[in-house]
Amino acid sequence: MTSVDRPEAGVLPFFVYGTLRPGEVNHALFLRGRTAAEEPARLPDAALYEGPGYPYAVERAGSAITGELITPAPGAYRELLAALDLLEEYAGPGRPGNVYDRVAREAVRPDASRVRAWVYLAAAPLARRLTASGTEIPGGDWLRRGDRV
Fold first, then answer.
1. Are 102 and 3 in contact (CB under 8 A)?
2. Which of 23, 9, 89, 34 is nearest to 56 (CA)?
3. Which of 69, 60, 123 is nearest to 96 (CA)?
4. What is the pTM of this model?
5. CA distance 125 to 96
6. Kind of enzyme, top EC level (predicted)?
7. For 7, 20, 81, 100, which has the most beta carbons within 10 A of its beta carbon?
8. CA 115, CA 107: separation in Å to the nearest integer?
9. Three-state DSSP class for 73?
């Protein structure tokens, strides 16, 4: 049984923060035509790190990252969930080969309302390496990663 099959998990939107955001390559490949709504949001208590062409999010109290809240189109949820799990190299809860772990977290909309959503965070071994020696993306916004103030 996967975490999505458990009643407490339910059908959740996705919080995306990197190449799945509108205008990015994986949005066009995986999300175009499969969404009912896309809206800006923030993920509290997370930091963003550079990866090889895509970012990694890790848990960190007091920080936040910018992204979008994606609501799947009616009838597209299971197919989209499976496709994103494959893309993010997530094989299920606690699997040692996971690159990312899919977890349910609260995202915050611009009006300050909160919504529970799936988010892919760097799996624990990778998260430890990133926090020890990775390159953090200032401001937690993948789309503004080239901006230096």
1. yes
2. 89
3. 123
4. 0.90
5. 9
6. lyase
7. 20
8. 5
9. coil
* 11, two tokens: 């059908």
**R_g over Cα of the chain:** 14
- Return the structure tokens found at 91: 């094989």
Q: What is the topology classification, in CATH, of domain 3-135?
A: Hypothetical upf0131 protein ytfp (3.10.490)
The one-letter amino acid at 45: D
Cβ atoms 38, 117 nearer than 8 A:
no
Distance CA 43, CA 16 (A): 9
Contacts of 36 (CB under 8 A, 6+ apart): 71, 72, 73, 74
Residues 107, 110, 112, CA angle at the centre, nearest 5°?
A: 65
Q: Place 57 in a pLDDT band, splitting at 50, 70 and 90.
A: very high
Domain residues of the chain, as ranges? Answer: 3-135
What is d(CA 120, CA 133) in angstroms, rounded to the nearest whole number? 20
Mean pLDDT of the chain: 91
85-129 pLDDT tens trace: 999 999 999 899 999 999 999 999 999 999 999 999 999 999 999
How many residues can be counted in the chain? 149
CA–CA gap between residue 33 and residue 83 (Å, rounded): 14
